[in-house]
Amino acid sequence: MSITRRQLIQGVGAFAGAAALGQNAYSQTNPLNVGFVLIGPVGDFGWSTMHDRGRRRMEEVLGPAVRSTQVESVAPPDFDRVVNQLARNGARLIFTTSFSYFQPTVRVAPTLPNVFFENATGTSTLPNLSIYNSRFYEGRYVQGVIAARKSRSKQIGYIASFPVPEVIHAINTVMRGAWSVDPNMKIRVVWAGAWFNPGREAEAARALVDQGCDVLCQHTDSPAPLQVAQERRVFGFGQASDMTRFAPSAHLTSSVNNWGDYYVSRARAVIDGSWKPGDVWGGLNSGMFSLAPFTNMSPEEVAEATRIRDALAAGTLHPFEGPIVRQDGTTVIPAGQRLNDDQIRSQNYFYRGIDATMPS
Amino acid sequence: MTIAEAILLTVITAATPLLLAAIGELVVERSGVLNLGVEGMMIMGAATGIAVAILTGSSALGVLGAIAAGMALAALFAVMTLGLAVNQVASGLALTIFGLGLSGVVGARFVGVQREGIGKIDIPVLSDIPFLGRVLFEQDPFVYLSVLLVGGVWWFLNRTKAGLVLRACGENHTSAHALGYPVLRIRLVAILFGGACAGLAGAYLSLVYTPFWTSGMTAGRGWIALAIVVFASWLPWRAALGAYLFGGLTILQLHAQGFGVPVPSQLLAALPYLLTIVVLVLIMRVRQGSTAGPASLGVPFVPDR
């Protein structure tokens, strides 16, 4: 069930009445009310679509034990209002599904101590705030390897959203993968300044192709960049869901998110009272995300990509091995060391060899 | 294709939806009505356009559907502001919010449907002219239409009696009424024309620019179109200039980033609005206190009996 903000407001009155009937009957009779706050529309075919799919999976598995309310396209300034409304509406578990909501969630969580919060891609926990994320960088490394094999111009185009660590370490990792095949690979980065703005994403993709990039990576949520790749006869990777159908002859692979199992386990934890703040960062081996079938690649290329993917999943290949050197030449870690999770999560620098700049 | 050609091509396509919506709103405002609902009419056009195109399999019908949807919303606005003399600013804002919501309902069934976009039309001979040929004469039909519309609106406003009467309604509706012109009927036609143009701009987004439907896909272009009308000081050719300038700024900013030029992208994103403010200030200075806008702009008209 997807509820608009207006229906939500109407619902508040009804719930105020229900609350007056007594709270103690709650656990026996009422299903757990779970709230979801989405950064984009459910139909973005990417990030928000997949959170919605996870929510549906949760409802399917837990059946009458849960009830969910979802508010889509919530701009960060509206966040507090929406979350308070959800809480007043009876939500006891709220998933805030964007990095853009991390700081707002940290701010709101202490004011609603009876609500359990879960923030996707956040970086720290609170007594009633968990964080969860997938190691998408593993997929980015595979993208880099494939891009280096497919590119003739030796230039990758990257449609970035905002200069946050999640995006920055993804760009770094794409190049790590690409350099493992060809050290001469270059990357051009364009910041769209949005997670979802199909027109702008398409414009950014066109600009990159015009500048000679022939493989596009995207960190924005709509299929528009892939459509441009198809139209301009270059290659591209899908974001968050399997986007093959948007670019049948341009699509290489997509990183496919799967939040359903996590949502089931967290809702179950609240129901049986075992919920504790956690920090889950699942990789390819966890099932939290996978790579869509490789398309438009030769059998050798598929074999190589599969080998790299499996090595990443098995942990025998790690994208953050030293030496790691910043753009300005300072060494972060020497050879033989590896960045820990906190260092990966706080990356705010490009590696040496990446010419791109970050918007200030 | 050289990079300059490529940039010009993208600038023209990026500017076209802005220009289409702006030229419609320009006519509406010249008749004395301020319709802030451009964004809402545009996105309804986008949703209806792709819905009809998918259902009928015809892009042309999709475009007609988009125009009809834009006009339907505009008619609603006309009922409120002309018929009931409701505040135009409030009605326009309501129209935008309404359009954004309703388009989500209309488009819900078509989320994720993949569709081939409307292709480009290659004008023979002319498109073989080096450099300019490819940029100007190998575009999609909307681009040609937008330029024709600008010329047509200019001709209408400045060279026809009907245009003069429309402007008279915008400058002083009481005088126009006293002279016996049907002010409300003229404004109704202008509002419907504005709706049709906004719907067309929406169709461009969902059928040509990014051929699929998602809610909220206009992403604020309706507001930029409104800014362009002010930037243009209500003159059609300047609206074209404004649209290409604003479109060009967006594209150049993306290219600058791709080339690794450190540009503050936030500043560039704000530039269209800053430019609009600067132009407004300049107009005020040159005209010593009076704006270039139609004098009756935004004032409801209730004919006395």
Explain what the structure shows.
The complex is a heterodimer of chains A (360) and B (305). The longest helix of chain A is centred in the middle third of the chain and has 17 residues, at 165-181. Mean pLDDT of chain A is 89; it is low at 9-28. In chain A, strand 13 (324-325) and strand 14 form a beta hairpin. Helix content of chain A is 39%, strand content 18%. Chain A is an alpha/beta fold and 360 residues long. By secondary structure, chain B is mostly helical. Chain B has one domain (3-286): ABC transporter involved in vitamin B12 uptake, BtuC (Orthogonal Bundle), CATH 1.10.3470. Chain B contains twelve helices and two strands. Chain B starts with a helix and ends in a 19-residue tail after the last helix. The mean pLDDT of chain B is 88. The chains are: A alpha/beta (360), B mainly alpha (305). Chain A binds chain B through residues 4, 40-45, 73, 157, 188-191, 193-194, 196-204, 206-208, 210-211, 213, 222-224, 227, 231, 245-246, 355-357, 359-360, and chain B through 3, 6-7, 10, 14, 101, 104, 107-108, 111-112, 114, 117, 205, 209-219, 221, 250-251, 254-255, 257-262, 264-266, 269.
